[in-house]
Write a structure and sequence with these properties.
Blueprint (H helix, E strand, L loop, with lengths): L6 H21 L6 H23 L9 H28 L12
Helix pairs in contact: 1-2, 2-3
Keywords: Membrane, Transmembrane, Transmembrane helix
Length: 105
């Protein structure tokens, strides 16, 4: 990001996303489950130190791609949790009820 001069754009995007995510949680606080609230806050608080480290701290010379790998692992874990959550919601909410067909003579 530093090489491409994208740091300012990154911070604006991250702050905008955080504001929108926290606003959504605040508006729907009584409808959001505890897991969703915890996961949303965890997503923002776990990603922020990694992103700050990736921008401002040089990785060790033995592991030049350390920050990129850690951010990718976090993103993969978040994706898998969201995937499992949506599958649970999909199969939990879909119940097939057949309406009896009324015969008219």
């Amino acid at each position: 990001m530093i090489k491409d001069d994208l740091v300012l754009i990154f911070w604006l995007t991250f702050i905008g996303f955080s504001i929108l995510a926290l606003q959504r949680i605040y508006v729907h606080l009584n409808q959001v489950s505890l897991f969703q609230l915890f996961f949303s806050i965890l997503c923002i608080t776990a990603t922020l130190p990694l992103l700050i480290a990736a921008i401002y701290i040089q990785p060790p010379s033995r592991y030049p791609d350390l920050w990129v790998v850690l951010i990718s692992v976090c993103s993969c874990i978040y994706f898998l949790i969201i995937l499992v959550q949506f599958h649970i919601y999909q199969f939990k909410e879909t119940t097939f009820k057949q309406n009896p067909i009324k015969k008219t003579n």
